Amino acid sequence: MKILLVEDEPYVAGVINKGLTEKGYSVSVAPDGNTGLKMALAHSFDVLILDIMLPGMNGMELCRKLRENKINSPILFLTALGTTENIVAGLDAGADDYLVKPFKFAELEARLKSLNRRKNLVVQEEEDVQYLDTLRIDFRSKLVEQEGKPVALTSTEFRLLEFFVRNKNRVLSRMEILEKVWGIDFNMGTNVVDVYVNYLRKKISSNPDKKFIQTVVGMGYMLKV
C-alpha cells in the first residue's frame, strides 16, 4: 500500500512513518498542505493521511482541492478536534474517515487497511433503484435524490445508506455496521458509526420530526420503513 502522510509535527510524522514502514507500507511524508497537494497531484497513492492543522494550507482546504482535482483515493483525517461538528466538517470536505489524536497505531493500521479494501469493493447488486419515502437511491450510479433534488453524500455515507436500505427493518449493531461498511472487525471503542448515522440522518430527512434511521437503545440502529 502506497501512503501519503501530510503531517507538520516531526515527532508524530516520524512515529507514523516508522511504524507503517516496519509493517511493509510505502510511506511518503509532506510537512505542509502545499507540498502535500503537489505530491498527491504528481504521484498515485492508495490512501492519504491528512492532519487538519497544517501550515500554509490546512487539511480541510487540502482535502477539498484534492477532490476538485479528481483525486479519488481514500482520505483519512487525523485530528485533535474530536467534536461532532469538527468531524462533520471534515467529512463534508470530502474525507472518508477520521481518527482522533491521540490514537493507537493498531487502530490507524486497521483504518488504512479498511479504506484500501473498500476502494476496490464490488457490491453485489440487487435492485438498481430503490425508494425511501421521497428519497430515490440509484445504486448503480451512486446518486441520491430528495424530491428530485440531488443529495450530496460521501462514498462512506453512501455505503452506510446502502447497507441500511438493503437491511431495512432489521436491527443492526454498531459492530456489524463497522464490519460491513468500514471493514473493521474488532472493537476499538470508536464512535465513528454514531457520527456517520447522525450526519446521514440530517442529509436524507426532509422532515426533522421523521427519522428513517432509528436508534434501538442498547442494540444499535434500524432503518424502519
Kindly state the number of beta strands.
Answer: 12
> Mean pLDDT, rounded to whole units?
86
Which structural class do the helices and strands define?
alpha/beta
Which runs of at least 5 residues are low in confidence (pLDDT < 50)?
A: none
How much of the residues is beta strand, in percent? 15-25%
Distance between the termini: 41 Å
What Rg is obtained from the alpha carbons, in whole angstroms?
18 Å
- Which sequence of strands runs across the widest sheet? 2-1-3-4-5
Shape: globular
- For this entry, what is the oligomeric state of its chains? single chain
Helix content: 40-55%
Element order: H for helix, E for strand = EHEHEHEHEHEEEEHEHHEE
Task: Summarize the main sheet.
Answer: 5 strands, parallel
| Total helical elements | 8
